[in-house]
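Let's practice the habit of predicting before peeking. Look at the sequence and jot down your guess about where helices and strands might fall. Then scroll down.
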Amino acid sequence: MNAQATAVTYECFDVEIADNVAHIRLKRPEALNTMIRGFWSELPAIVRDIDVNARARCIVISSTGKHFSAGMDLAVFGGNSAVGGARQADPQTAAESFRFNVKHLQDSFSCLDEARMPVLVAIQGGCIGGAVDMTSACDIRYATKDAFFCIQEINIGMTADVGTFPRLCKLIPEGWVRELAYTGRRLPAAKAEQIGLVNAVFDTHEAMLAHVMETAREIAAKPPLAVTGSKVMINYARDHTIKDGLDYIGLWNTSMFAPPHMQEAFKAKQEKRDPVYPDLLPLRNGL
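Done guessing? Here is the structure:
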């Protein structure tokens, strides 16, 4: 893969790809990086483009300003937006439409979980409401010492519905999920690290981002097929029994095991050089 940097700008994000790492950066700090309507179409489009076209071997998501994100912009709830929907006289028809639109929002974050490459996220300040949904769909989370997490939905009279509960219950003890969900309290970074929600806490945003990018480049230097296989197996183990997981990894390695990649790893070590592995192939949308 070409290590030359490329950059693209969107309404809500800046995207740069260099050294086999795609860096997606939220760029609306003046609005606390709230998730406006454009956010919900741009993020999945960006991630799926990187994934389908194998543009990188690892993805990093970071943000700008004081807070990572204050969650969904309240304007999304009104008018003819994805969540507000067209107001209709029949409540059942409106409810069916609302359910479909919630699924659209859920898919905007599921793309992170489903991407073939790992997704790392660097969190500073507030990670609120929809931002908890978003970051819980990532592979690894890091935070600054001033970061905090808040299931904000309970404070505005609703139940979180874009991914917080299905994923958060797999990441931290259920008692903590319940306390945060029922009270709307803030979970500070130190406690988040203690209970396993984040891997490490840093004094500054700069130190955190330097560590995250270094980790991403380290992942990108590993054999991409083995990395994506590891992500598939971890996700499968999360959602299935141990017996099913053991059976699936056996089937996976029956077809995906790559002796040439192992040979390259050993040869590179012997020759004291960096190994060179083939990239994942772009997908062809089933054609």
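How did you do? The chain has two domains: 6-220, 224-270.
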